[in-house]
Amino acid sequence: MQQKIIIILFSLVPILLLVTFSYLPLFNMFTYSFTSWDGLSPVKEFVGFQNYIRLFTNPEYFHVFKVSLYYLVASFVQLGIALYFATLLTFKVRFKNFFKGTLFFPYLLNGVAIGFTFLFFFRQDGTLDTLLSLIGLEDMIQMWLRDPNIINFSLASTSVWRHMGFNFIIFVGAISSISNEIYEAAEMDGANRWQQFRYIIFPSILKIIQLNLILSISGALSVFEIPYIMTGGANGSSTFVIQTVDLAFKYNNTGLASAMGIVLLIIVMIVSLIQRLAFKED
């Protein structure tokens, strides 16, 4: 009996914290999404599904879903690059520890610092334009952060550079757990590097790939700091979270912002479910 009481008491604190800071705010956000509330007034006017209808019918709000596609594609590129370098540095490569540190370093930097760094990198007559001029590619110079057709490519590429190190180090850890004896046996059987990756590395780290995949997709849907610092959501670069923050704190439309938060939660849950069904084992 005493043991059960101790277990309950130790479990009570994290459960209370979870309910207070996760489930209760989620419940409040769900109720706010059915109201027209400015976040300050004590009166909350019930509007039903009107906020959700506005999200999917108003082009201004629906545009953020299109912007998310840039970061979604970038997340797959990021995973591919991370897996490539993690696999490459698994084998005998000179200065591989140096390369590991170099690839992981961007993830250690603060997102705000990265935003300001790439703001100078992509600005007109900035670092990128200077480099293109030096190598004789002046014709490729664009308005990287002003042209609506290019701006999201620039921001998505920054996101790849920012987050690739995290996936890379996770893949390196997973691949390093594979016994060297397996590689030696494969080499004795005449397996080349591609065959070792296909039949040894990939099946062994499939679970880690699935985990990184769902984290990358969820992150792509909730991008905030880099586009907010670099553009503030201007020129068609506003993401789902930037739009939500602006609605809640800039335009005092907490009801509509809450509806966007609920939609984002549902999308992440659906993506997670699809991912689990797609990689479900027999």
Low-confidence stretches: none
Count of extended strands: 2
Instruction: Round the Cα radius of gyration to an integer and report it.
Output: 23 Å
Q: What is the typical, i.e. mean, pLDDT?
A: 84
* CATH fold type: MetI-like fold
The major beta sheet can be summarized as: 2 strands, antiparallel
Helix content: over 70%
Total number of distinct structural domains: 1
Instruction: Quote the beta fraction.
Output: under 5%
How far is the N terminus from the C terminus? 42 Å
Number of helices: 13
CATH superfamily: MetI-like
CATH architecture: Orthogonal Bundle
Biggest sheet, strands in spatial order?
1-2
CATH class: Mainly Alpha
- Shape field: globular
**Which class do the helix and strand fractions yield?**
mainly alpha
SSE string, helix = H, strand = E?
HEEHHHHHHHHHHHH
Report on the structure:
- The structure is a single chain.
- The protein is mainly α and 282 residues long.
- It has one domain (55-278): MetI-like fold (Orthogonal Bundle).
- Helix content is 73%, strand content 1%.
- It has 13 helices and two strands.
- The protein has a two-stranded antiparallel sheet.
- A hairpin with an 8-residue loop joins strand 1 (35-36) and strand 2.
- The longest helix is centred in the first third of the chain and has 31 residues, at 2-32.
- It is globular.
What labels describe this entry?
282 residues; mainly alpha; MetI-like fold; 2 strands; globular
